[in-house]
Automatic annotation (TrEMBL):
The name this protein goes by in its record: ATP-binding protein
Keyword ATP-binding: yes
Residue ranges, annotated region (Disordered): 243-284
Keywords: ATP-binding, Nucleotide-binding
Domain of life: Bacteria
Natural source organism: Ligilactobacillus salivarius
Pfam family, one: AAA_24
Record bears the keyword NADP: no
Residue spans of biased composition, Polar residues class: 243-259
Molecular function GO terms recorded: ATP binding
Length: 353
């Protein structure tokens, strides 16, 4: 009897999508057309669309915590991080605060870049886990042009790439099932009389397959070039994921339809009213403005008071007992935010017991 069962390779499952392009071309709006989207807005770009989102993460720790929250309590059918390059900036600040680095650069034989790619790898692994619980994942990112060297000294050319560090860009491209590149399509016309050149067109298009000038890929059999319109990929996307965006909308509409009342409403006997579930207590303390927002947000969501965070500073030996809050240096606040798991552990084991 065989030990291993032969399985089918074709799967109907949510997708991991990466959308990148020039600024202002409509990446966020396009992403909002995926089924039942929930945004994590790292750059504050969702204010002009009608969608749901989690609180804007102000630290790398908070971003990863939000992903863990979505995985443990799945909501929506698509999670969107808008944008990945701004998320990378949170990771950079996290590492700089945690290790007292002045920058993420090639110091120490590139170990800082390796540490950064490790953090981005953690992010992508968490996103895969979210996909595995039945949620599409969409990442948006900005594009930038870089010189690309051809082998054997054949020259170089400009290429649109993800606005990420090289290692991080490679990880993101390997992670994605589909990469869509958004750009304006222009045509250069040469005047036969003056020999001057003029750019015309400016049509917004998305590219779905790899070319020397950009990165793209898809496993849906999409045409090489499409208009930036979700309808252009809807049918093939629904076939791959088994999710019908049309069905989601119709269900929503059905729920909002008003049912006409009968002429004479039936008499309903009085019944004892069910006890209302008590809401979780709100954290009402106002965090002082001298505490950076990145730490204040973590304190609020974890119900950590100002007195408790000061006790962490004293008990942890960071500053002498009785040091005023206003004398705490900026870099120490950043260190606490970057080591938030250790802060919570100290609170539970040494301060709150």
């Amino acid at each position: 009897m065989s030990k291993y069962e032969v399985q089918e390779t074709l799967k109907i499952e949510p997708m991991k999508v990466l959308i990148y392009g020039v600024e202002g071309i409509g990446k966020t709006t396009f992403a909002s057309k995926f089924p039942d989207p929930i945004f994590i807005d790292t750059e504050g770009s969702t204010g002009f669309i009608n969608a749901r989102k989690l609180p804007n993460p102000t630290s790398w720790t908070m971003l990863l915590d939000e992903l863990e929250d979505i995985k443990s309590d799945p909501r929506g059918k698509t999670l969107i991080i808008d944008t990945l390059d701004w998320a990378e900036s949170l990771a950079k600040k996290y590492l700089m605060d945690k290790n007292n680095w002045s920058a993420i650069d090639a110091s120490n034989y590139g170990t800082r870049y390796v540490a950064l790619s490790d953090e981005i790898g953690k992010l992508l692994n968490k996103l895969t886990e979210i996909r595995d619980v039945g949620i599409n994942v969409v990442l948006t990112a900005h594009a930038e042009t870089k010189k690309h060297e051809l082998p054997d000294e054949m020259g170089q050319y400009d290429k649109y790439t993800l606005k990420l560090e090289r290692r991080d860009a490679s990880l993101a491209k390997e992670w994605a099932d589909m990469i869509l590149f958004f750009n304006y399509k222009t045509t250069i016309i040469t005047d036969s009389k003056s020999d001057s050149k003029k750019a015309t067109g400016g049509q917004r298009v998305m590219y779905t397959t790899h070319k020397p000038a950009w990165d793209a890929k898809n496993r849906l059999g999409l045409p090489d070039e499409l208009p930036i319109d979700f309808e252009a990929i809807r049918e093939l996307f629904e076939a791959k994921t088994g999710m019908s965006t049309t069905q989601i909308k119709s269900e929503s509409n059905t729920q909002t339809q008003q049912v006409p009342l009968p002429d004479e409403p039936p008499v309903i006997e009085d019944e004892p009213e069910p006890e209302e579930a008590k809401p979780a207590p709100e954290f009402a303390e106002e965090i002082p403005s001298s505490i950076p927002q990145s730490l204040a947000d973590l304190m609020t969501v974890n119900h950590v008071t100002t007195d408790e965070i000061m006790q962490v500073i004293y008990v942890g030996g960071f500053m002498p007992q009785g040091t005023p809050l206003e004398n705490v240096p900026e870099e120490l606040w950043g260190h606490l935010a970057s080591n938030w798991d250790k802060v919570l552990n100290m609170l539970e084991t040494q301060i709150r017991k």
